[in-house]
Structures are given as C-alpha cells and as structure tokens.
Design brief:
Blueprint lengths: L1 H16 L12 H56 L2 H11 L16
C-alpha cells in the first residue's frame, strides 16, 4: 500500500514538473539529457576558445622570438664594435697622434712600494 502511495506521489510530481523526469532511452530522464547537452555545448565552446587563444599566443611567441633574434644579432654587432673601438693598439695609436703621448723609456719608469 505504501508503495502505491509513493508511486502516486511520484506520478503527481512528474505531472507537476511537466514530464521533465519522464524516462527516455537507457533509463535517462529528459532533465538529465538536457543538462548533459548543455554541458556538452559549454565544453565544445571552451575547446574552441582555448584553441583560438593557443593559436594567438603561439603567433605572439613567434613574433617575440623573431624580435629576440634581431636584438641578439644587434647585441653581437655592438660587442664587436666595442671590442674594435677599445682595442689597446687603437687607443695607443690615437694617444700618440692626437695627444702626442709616448711610451716612457725603461729608465724613466719607477716602481713604488706600498
């Protein structure tokens, strides 16, 4: 008797909700199918969004890597130029030509003790 009353309550509940809990295929209810369909669509949208963001970020990475390579090449050129401008032989030649400096003789050099 209690089982019949429970079925009646369940039947009334299903009727009130509008059949959302009506059994479909494989024992699934209409509500669960709708919920799973919405979740499936949300997941598909998330996959598309993440794929797009990945492509955009990869393109940005490629741009930054090209910029890094150009900066590295420029830095290498600057180091070479610095080593050229600061070579001891060049500095000595400029000191002799422009400033009339000369290397002191050995007897004109003094060593001081601390």
């Amino acid at each position: 008797m209690a089982a019949v009353a429970e079925q009646r309550k369940t039947g009334r509940l299903n009727a009130r909700v509008g059949g959302l809990y009506r059994k479909l295929f494989f024992g699934a209810t209409l509500f669960s199918v709708v919920v799973l369909a919405v979740i499936n669509l949300m997941t598909a949208f998330a996959v598309v969004t993440v794929t797009h963001q990945t492509r955009v970020q990869y393109a940005r990475l490629q741009t930054l890597e090209h910029e890094r390579d150009a900066l590295q090449a420029n830095w290498s050129r600057l180091l070479l130029e610095e080593s050229t401008w600061s070579s001891p032989s060049r500095i000595e030649a400029i000191a002799q030509q422009r400033l009339q400096m000369k290397v002191p003789a050995a007897d004109a050099t003094r060593v001081l003790k601390p």
